[in-house]
Amino acid sequence: MSRINFDLDVLRSFVTGVELGSFAQAADRLGRSTSAVSAQLRKLEEQAGAAVFRKSGRGLALTEAGETMLSYARRLIDLNDEAAVAMRGVDLEGWVRLGMPEDFGEAVLPDILGRFVRAHPKVRIEARVARNAELLSQAAENRLDLALVWNDGSNATRGDAVSDVQLRWIGPATAHDIWQPGRGEPLPLVVFEAPCIVRSAATAVLDRAGIPWRVVFTSPSLGGLWAAVSAGLGYTIRTGIGLPSGVRAMGGGEAGLPALPSLSLSLHRTGVDKGSPADRLAEIVLQEVRAVTTAMPLAA
Fold first, then answer.
1. CA angle 35, 39, 41 (to 5 degrees)
2. pLDDT score for 216
3. Cβ(167)–Cβ(260) under 8 Å?
4. What is the second-level CATH architecture of the domain 165-261?
5. Which residue range or ranges hold the HTH lysR-type domain (predicted)?
6. Strands 123-129 and 94-100
7. Matching CATH topology for 94-164+263-295 and 165-261?
8. Domain extent listing, the chain
C-alpha cells in the first residue's frame, strides 16, 4: 500500500479556512485565489479518501472525518513551523518578558512555552500572569515585551488583533439554588476587584436588561473566583477557557441570565524588533491563543 504524503500548503488552507469561518477570507490571508483554495480542498478529500465537509444550511460544516483531519492538520503545521523557526533561529539568544491574563495561564501558557523553548533553548523567558490593568501598566512602563490584553478600545490596548472571545456566565458544577428571576432578589455576582473590563461588561448588560445585581464576593485572583462560585455564592463572568472541575460555563438563557458580549484580545508589543526573540515568541502566542479561542463554542 502506497503512503500518503499530505501537502502542507493544502493543510494550511484547510485549517485557516476553518478557523476564519470562510475560505474566501482564507484565500485572501494566504495570498491565493478562492478557486485555488477550492482546488486544494478537493485535493485534500482525494488524499484523505473521505469527505471532510458536509452541507449545513447555507454553509459547510466538518464531517467526523473532517474533525479528525483538522486535529492532525494543526499538529502537522505546528511541527513544520516549529522546525522552520528552529532552523532559522538555532543560535537565537536573549531575554523575553511575556504577560497574559489569568484565564490563559494554565490553558495556553504551557504550550506556548514548550513550543518556544524547544525551538530556542538559549532564550530565557519571564512569564507573568496578572490582571488586565496590571499588564497594561507593566507594558506602558516597558517592563513587558509582549502583553496579551483585553482590548477596551483605548490607545493603550491597541496592538495585533488576536481574536474575539465570547464571555460566559460561570456557575457551580453541581446544582445550587443561587438565584431565580422573578423573586425580586438581586443577582449575586462573584467578581474581580475593580477596575475590571469583564466585570464592567457584565454589569452593563444586567443594567440594560433591568436585572438588579449585587457583588457578594470579590477577589484579586482567579482562584478566589472559582472557589466562591464552586461553593454556590453566586455567578461570575469569564471566557470558558481553563475552567476547573468545580465550575461550568452556562448555556445561553440558562437561569434567566441575559446574553453576554464578546471581548477582543490584543497582543501589545513594546519595542519588539523583527526577527528578535520577542518577535518569534509573538508568532507562537498568536497561533496558540487563536487556536484555543476559535475552538470555543459560542453561547446559545
1. 115
2. 95
3. yes
4. 3-Layer(aba) Sandwich (3.40)
5. 6-63
6. parallel
7. yes
8. 8-88, 94-164+263-295, 165-261
Pairing of strands 213-219, 187-192: parallel
Residue 18, class by beta-carbon neighbours within 10 Å (0-12 exposed, 13-18 middle, 19+ buried)? buried
- Phi-psi region at 279: left, alpha or beta (left = phi > 0; alpha = psi -120 to 50): alpha
CA-CA distance, 26 to 19, in Å (whole number)?
9
Which CATH code fits 8-88? 1.10.10.10
Integer Cα distance of 7 and 2 in angstroms: 15
Looking at residue 89, its pLDDT comes to 53
- Counting as low any pLDDT under 50, the low residues of the chain are 298-300
Helix (H) / strand (E) containing 122? none
Given a contact cutoff of 8 angstroms between Cβ atoms, the answer to whether 66 and 60 are in contact is: no
- Report whether 189 contacts 202 (CB < 8 A): yes
Q: How high is the pLDDT of residue 95?
A: 86
Predicted pLDDT at 41? 87
Q: Which residues of the chain form beta strands (DSSP E)?
A: 53-56, 59-62, 94-100, 123-129, 146-151, 160-166, 168-172, 187-192, 213-219, 236-238, 247-249, 262-269
CA-closest candidate to residue 201, choices 263, 129, 276, 249:
263
Note the pLDDT of residue 299: 46
> Residue 45 corresponds to which amino acid?
E
Q: Which three cell numbers stand for residue 236?
A: 461570575
The pLDDT score that the predictor gives to residue 300 is 39
Cell of 40: 486544494
Domain at 94-164+263-295, CATH homologous superfamily: Periplasmic binding protein-like II (3.40.190.10)
The pLDDT of residue 181 is 74
